[in-house]
Amino acid sequence: MGLLEGADWEVREWLRAGVADVGFLAMPLEDLVVEPFVSDEFAAVMPAGHRLAGAARVTADDLAGEAYVMSKSGCEPLVLDWFKPAGPTVEYEVRTGLAIVPIDPPAARDVVVARAQEREPTPAARAFIDLAIAFGRRTGRGVGPAPPAAGPAAPGREALATSTSSA
Asked: Exposed, middle or buried by CB within 10 Å (0-12, 13-18, 19+), for 86?
């Protein structure tokens, strides 16, 4: 069994190509069998001394004109959609001493455990999927019921993939 780490687009390709049996990805997805894992709430992350660091919540309008560090792991469409119509001023810079402030309106992404439709999971991959889903539910961030599984049974390979996407 191996563990791969990559951006959402890479994990999708690994699943489709049979390089990995299981991956953690943000919705929406097409052509993959998915099972709910967790819901990740978005938050604004800023320097602890920022003018909005003590706010109870921030809106896209509050953040208009502020510099923004964009994740390149697959969440860009979700983040940009939340910012509409204001739009962030994207800067690629990381700072230490950060504050995390809830955003208003709240936004989240549903993270799922995904696998290729063409292959049924191996027993080891199925056990991992079940363990991951149980963990998501124990954390209180688990999401609703899974869509129905699809695709014919086929042998899988015992490799796991995860996405670097995180809120």
From this structure: middle
User: Looking up tokens 């910012």, which residue turns up?
Assistant: 83
33 & 60 share domain: no
Same-domain check for residues 6 and 27: yes
* pTM for the model: 0.58
112-133 tens-digit pLDDT: 888 888 888 888 888 888 888 8
86 and 134 assigned to the same domain: no
Domain count, the chain: 2
What CA–CA distance (Å, rounded) separates 167 from 39?
Answer: 10
Structural domain for 77, as ranges:
43-102
Question: Are the beta carbons of 24 and 162 closer than 8 angstroms?
Answer: yes
DSSP 58: B
In a domain, 117, yes or no: yes
Q: Give every CB contact of residue 109 below 8 A, 6+ residues apart in sequence.
A: 26, 27, 39, 40, 42, 75, 78, 165, 167
pLDDT for 9-65, tens place per residue? 888 899 999 899 999 888 777 788 888 888 878 888 888 888 998 899 888 888 887
Closest by Cα among 113, 155, 119, 117 to 134: 113
List the one residue out of 153, 112, 122, 107 whose CA is nearest residue 24. 112
